[in-house]
Design goal:
Strand content: 15-25%
Radius of gyration: 19 Å
CATH topology of the largest domain: Rossmann fold
CATH superfamily of the largest domain: HUPs
Order of helices and strands: EHEHEHHEHHHEHEHHHEEE
Shape: globular
Distance between the termini: 45 Å
CATH class of the largest domain: Alpha Beta
CATH architecture of the largest domain: 3-Layer(aba) Sandwich
Strand order of the largest sheet: 1-4-3-2-5-6
Number of strands: 9
């Protein structure tokens, strides 16, 4: 497995691969890898000749400097995970390599970057779009793999790709969960043992909300879910919304043409956790 820190060295490698007519699958990450990331690497391995993974904690997508500071950085462990998973090359740039000059790219997402995550993390999705587009231009992948836990992020990346005319095939991949249902996340390692034991309640509540379909409207389910969290003060819900899976706008009924999606962000033990579940009967 090759490790690149400079984009010109990565570029030479990518040119060689493409000149050989081989396909490239790309998995962009911020490191602190877990089995969710491994599932993306394995999927890319099945569908491409070469698999490239990037590890870059992107400062542009952190609206909270404390969150950026605390984000786990575990390069040595990450590399030991990637090679057996089937990764061929890792791109591990420093901030100056990705952003040598002032960032000037601008994208328009209409409402997509203003709802849910966008409402609570201003500027976050601008940073996501900038870094993903730059990585696409460096790695030149045929396919790129993203986990569905960050559902809104996928919508943003799709929009950015339309705006840039990207020909990369975006491959959304299922959420990978711990045995107790907690969605795998790099942030989970920051939970205390006590909080980690409580954390599966998030997914349990998403499932509980889905069981209300047929007897309650989306607005009623939303209220019931928030009320359920109020019984557990260790959790601080930031939002719970049932939205159209295409537009990401709230639905008034469960009969929308696109499957409704329940999306949630919760603070637990000073760690922000997100999850989602399709609310289709």
């Amino acid at each position: 497995m090759k490790l690149f820190t400079a984009k010109n060295e990565l570029g030479a490698y990518i040119s060689e691969i493409r000149n050989q007519g081989r396909s490239i699958g790309f998995v962009p990450t911020m490191g602190a890898l877990h089995q969710g990331h491994v599932s993306l690497i394995k999927k890319a391995r099945q569908e491409n000749d070469i698999v490239v993974c990037s590890i870059f904690v992107n400062p542009l997508q952190f609206n909270n400097t404390e969150d950026l500071k605390k984000y786990p950085r575990t390069l040595t462990e990450d590399l030991t995970i990637l090679e057996p998973a089937g990764c061929d090359a890792v791109f591990y740039p420093k901030v100056g390599e990705m952003y040598p000059d002032e960032v000037t790219e601008k994208y328009t997402f209409n409402h997509l970057d203003k709802v849910m995550e966008g409402k609570f993390r201003p500027g976050h999705f601008d940073g996501v779009a900038v870094v993903v587009n730059r990585l696409f231009n460096m790695v030149l992948p045929h396919r790129a793999y993203f986990g569905l836990k960050d559902y809104q992020q996928i919508a943003i990346v799709k929009s950015m790709m339309l705006q840039t005319g990207s020909t990369v095939e975006l491959v959304p991949c299922p959420i990978i969960r711990e045995v107790d249902g907690l969605a795998m996340s790099s942030r989970n390692v920051r939970l205390s043992p006590e909080a980690r034991n409580l954390a599966p309640f998030i997914y349990q509540t998403l499932q509980w909300g889905k069981q209300q379909l047929g007897t309650a409207s989306p607005a009623e389910v939303t209220k019931k879910v928030i009320d359920r969290f109020k019984l557990h003060p260790e959790f601080e819900p930031e939002y719970f919304e049932i939205v159209d899976s295409e537009t990401l706008l709230p639905v008034e009924t469960f009969d929308s043409s696109n499957p409704p999606m329940a999306c949630i962000a919760v603070w637990l033990d000073q760690v922000r956790l997100i999850d989602n579940l399709v609310y289709e009967a």
